[in-house]
Amino acid sequence: MAVVGDLRVLLRLRDFRRLLAVRLLSQGADGVYQVALATYVVFSPEKQTSPGAIASAMAVLLLPYSVVGPFAGVLLDRWRRRQVLLYGNVLRAALASLTAVLMFSDVPDGLFYASALCVTAVNRFVLAGLSAALPRVVDADRLVLANSLSPTAGTLAATAGGGLAFVVRIVVADSDAAVVLLGAALYLCSAFASLTMTRELLGPDQELVQPRLGTALAGTARGLLMGVRHLAARRPAAGALVSMTLMRFCFGALTVMVLMLCRYAWSSSESDGLALLGLAVGFSGAGFFAAAVVTPWAVGRWGPRGWMTGCAGAAAVLVPALGLPFAPAPILVAAFVLGLTTQGAKIATDTVVQATVDDGYRGRIFSLYDVLFNVAFVGAAGVAALMLPPDGKSTVLVASVAVLYSAIAVTMTRFDGQ
After folding, report:
1. What pLDDT, in 10s, does the model give residues 257-295?
2. In the prediction, which pLDDT does 1 show?
C-alpha cells in the first residue's frame, strides 16, 4: 500500500521523528490535563453544570489568549523554535503543578481558572511552533503526508492521554490533582525530547532571529500587520483558514451538546456520564486516525480545497441523520464522522497554509490560526448555551449546524470555480 510505504520513508527521517516525539509527549500531556479539568469543572458531583457554565469556562480559558496570540506569533518568528518548545514545556510543567496545588486547596474558582489559563496560553504557543517547524524537517513532496501523520498522531496522543487519565483517576482515589501532576511529568518529558534537536534546526532563518526580548517586542505590532497583509495576499490560505474556522464553530457547538447529553440525558450519575464522554472521545479519535489514512489519497485526487469541500458536504448530510435521534449509538457514529471530516479538513488547511506562506511568517500565521480556532470554539459554546435545553437535546441546534456545513461546502465549491 503506497501510503504505508510513504509513512515508512517519513519515519526514517531522524529530525521528523524527533519533532514528532516532542508533539506526542506534549499533546499526550494535554489530554491528561484536559481530562482532569473536565472532571473537576464539569463532572464534579458538587457542581451543577449548564451549557452557560461550560461556555463561561471556555471563555475564561481561551478568550484572553485570543487577544495576545497574534503577538506571540510574531515572537515565534523571531525566536529559535527549538527553544520555544523546550522552555514552553518546562513552563507548562510548573504551571500544571500549581494547578494541582490549587485543586488541593480551598481557593476561589478565579484563581484556579487563572492557572489553567496560563497552561492553555503556553499550549497554543507550543502547538503553533510545532506546525511552523514541520516544513523544516520534511521535503515539500511529503508535506501533505507529514501533515496527515503529525497533527493526527498528536490528536491520538491526546486521546490516549485522556484514557490514561481515566485509569489514573480510578487507581488514585478519584484524585484530579494526581492526574494533573501526571500531565506535568509528561510536559517535562516533552521538554527533554526537544533537546535531541539542535537549536538551529527548526528555524526561523538566522537573519530573522532576535534573541533579546525587548528587540523582539519592539517590532511586534508592525510584524503582526505584515503577517495579516501577507495572509490577505494569499487567497488560498486565507480562504482555507476561514472555512476551517467555520467548521471548528460547528464542531464546538456539537461538543457542548454531547457534553450535556452525557451528563444529564444518557446517565444517572457523574461517573457514568464521564464514561460515555470518554467513549465519544474515543470514537472521535478513531475518526482522526481515519483522516490521517484517507487524506493523502483524497488530497492527491481532488486537491486540498476539493477534499475540504467534500468533508463539509459529508458533515452536512450525516450530522442531522445521526444526531437528531439523540441516542448514544448514532451520536457515537457521528463523533467518528466529525473526527474524520474535521481532522481531514484541518490537514488540508495546514498544507495550504504551509505551502503558500513564507517561512518568516509561518509562526504568526499559525498563531492566528489558533486564535481563530479559540474564538470559533468559544463562540460556538456561547451560541449552544442559548439554544440547548438542560438535557442537551436541541433539534434547532443540529439543523443549524447542518445548514452551516452546507453553506461552507457550497461557498468553497464556488471559490474553486473562480
Report:
1. 988 888 778 876 666 777 787 788 889 888 988 988 898
2. 46
DSSP codes of every residue in 47-114: ----HHHHHHHHHHHHHHHHHHHHHHHHHHTTS-HHHHHHHHHHHHHHHHHHHHHHHHS---HHHHHH
CATH tag, 13-232: 1.20.1250.20
Q: Between the CA of residue 86 and those of 41, 119, 125, 204, 378, what are the distances in Å?
A: 29, 15, 12, 16, 29
Element (H, E) at 369: helix 359-387
Instruction: Tell me what the mean pLDDT of segment 17-34 comes to.
Output: 93
Has this prediction a pTM greater than 0.85? no
CA atoms of 289 and 42, how far apart (whole Å): 27
Cβ–Cβ under 8 Å, residues 103 and 40: yes
Each residue's pLDDT tens digit, 173-191: 677 888 899 999 999 999 9
Supply angle C-alpha 199, 186, 75, rounded to 5: 40
Q: Where does CATH 1.20.1250.20 sit in the chain?
A: 13-232
- The end-to-end CA distance of the chain, in Å, is 35
Q: Which CATH class is domain 235-356+388-418?
A: mainly alpha
Q: What is the pLDDT of residues 30-78, one digit of tens each?
A: 989 988 887 777 666 555 566 776 776 677 666 666 666 666 666 777 7
350 in Cβ contact with 218 (< 8 Å): no
Question: Exposed, middle or buried: residue 366 (CB in 10 Å: 0-12, 13-18, 19+)?
Answer: buried
Three-class DSSP category at 224 = helix
